[in-house]
Design a protein that fits this description.
The chain is an all-alpha fold. It has a single domain (about 5-190, about 195-395), classed as MFS general substrate transporter like domains (Growth Hormone, Chain: A, Up-down Bundle). Helices cover about 85% and strands about 0% of the residues. α5 (about 75-95) packs antiparallel against α6 (about 100-125). The longest helix has about 30 residues, at about 210-240. It is globular, with a radius of gyration of 20 Å. The chain starts with 8 loop residues before the first helix and ends with a helix. It is found in: Membrane.
């Protein structure tokens, strides 16, 4: 077995950070292209939006079983195969005009992203311990936000110059490049293989679901990212179709909002030693207060600047909550890191997909006021979960 060499530990860590944002790249790089895709493929907006939700659903479901697989069979080979298949599916997506083929490829890309994400989350738990592990897990969520920051910015220019297909050619090339470096510098990090027995897996999942702090943490991760993903689903259509801005503008807006998510992550890391639940509750209250202000302001001003400014500060609070809970959940069960990471990602991203697509489908936001309505629904759901945690702790 090609195990990770100590001399390559630093390079392998950098590669893990390079691979981890792949899911963000796969969802966000073509955000500026969504209106053009709808036009060229002769599809309604909802069908193009569905390509995002399909990806997230398959991404989330895969992580339920991917964790047990990488804990039993290792991380390295699974990552290599996933990266190779990534390139193939992205090439197929770029060369087809069939929405059904695109749907199929998005399902496969979600599956592959699930395996890669779970493998690389477990990498940090395998290689690092103690405070160093907490440090890297916290950084991991920040690095993950690089995808949503950089991808739409790149995608906006790719769309302007080459068309929507170029986004997927770019992803294919990125996958091949990372695969080559993985083959040269990385290796297997799993030290103790867990048995791949159904009884063992059921017991592990039952233990994790019964651990209330872990369970509520998964829910909060899903709701926090749903707030960001809700804007991803409707933002490009509002900016390009309703406000009349070009695709590059969508890329700049996504870049700006990506920094909001990263800012929330940095705040989470900076306040990592503060008492956990109080800081999460404060963030949720601030979030709801900002959404109310967005409601009020919508009756007086309704332009791209007001929309983006409010989205920015709201996404900072979402990134803060996500960073804290995600790092907590992934490191909660270090002896079953793959399963814990997979379960966290699986539940979180299924919730993200269901809530964001559901809210967007019901509200069908076309103006700032309706975006605020969607934010408010998701923020209230978060307040409900945090209230349940408080009530439960009061009865212990």
């Amino acid at each position: 077995m090609n195990t990770l060499k100590e001399k390559n530990k630093f390079i392998a860590t950098i590669l893990a950070f390079a691979i981890f944002p792949m899911s963000g790249f796969a969802t966000d790089i073509y955000l500026p292209s969504m209106p053009s895709m709808a036009t060229e493929l002769h599809q309604p907006e909802s069908n193009i939006q569905l390509t995002l939700s399909i990806f997230l659903i398959s991404y989330g479901i895969t992580q339920f079983f991917a964790g047990s697989i990488v804990d039993s069979f290792g991380r390295y080979r699974i990552s290599l195969v996933s990266l190779a298949l990534f390139a193939v599916t992205f090439l197929i997506t770029a060369t087809t005009q069939s929405i059904m083929v695109i749907y199929a490829m998005r399902v496969l890309q979600g599956v592959l992203s699930g395996f890669v994400a779970v493998s690389k989350r477990a990498f940090f738990v395998d290689v690092y311990e103690g405070e160093e592990r907490k440090h890297y897990l916290s950084i991991m969520t920040i690095v993950w936000s690089v995808g949503p920051i950089v991808a739409p910015f790149i995608g906006g220019y790719l769309q302007k110059i080459f068309g929507w297909q170029s986004n997927f050619y770019f992803l294919a090339g990125y996958s091949v490049l990372v695969l080559i470096f993985e083959l040269i510098f990385s290796g297997e990090t799993l030290k103790r293989r867990n048995p791949f027995h159904l009884e063992f897996l059921i017991k592990e999942y039952e233990t994790m679901f019964r651990t209330k702090d872990f369970f509520y943490g998964m829910l909060m991760c899903g709701l926090s990212y749903a707030m960001v993903f809700f804007f991803n689903l409707c933002g490009a259509f509002i900016i390009e179709h309703k406000l009349g801005y070009p695709q590059v503008a969508t890329g700049y807006v996504s870049l700006f909002l990506g920094f909001a998510w990263m800012t929330g992550g940095f705040l989470g890391k900076a306040l990592i030693k503060k008492e956990f639940l109080p800081k999460i509750r404060y963030a949720n209250f601030i979030q709801l207060g900002l959404i109310v202000l967005m409601f009020v302001e919508s009756f007086f001003i309704n332009n791209i600047y007001s929309l983006v400014v409010f989205a920015f500060v709201i996404h900072v609070t979402a990134g803060f909550i996500f960073n804290n809970y995600y790092a907590y959940c992934v490191g909660r069960f270090p002896n079953s890191a793959g399963i814990a990471g997979g379960l966290t990602g699986g539940v979180a991203f299924i919730i993200t997909s269901a809530v964001s697509y559901g809210v967007a489908s019901i509200i069908k936001p076309e103006i700032q006021l309706q975006v605020a309505e969607g934010y408010f629904v998701i923020g209230i759901l978060g307040l409900f979960i945090l209230s349940m945690i408080k009530i439960r702790k009061a009865h212990i």
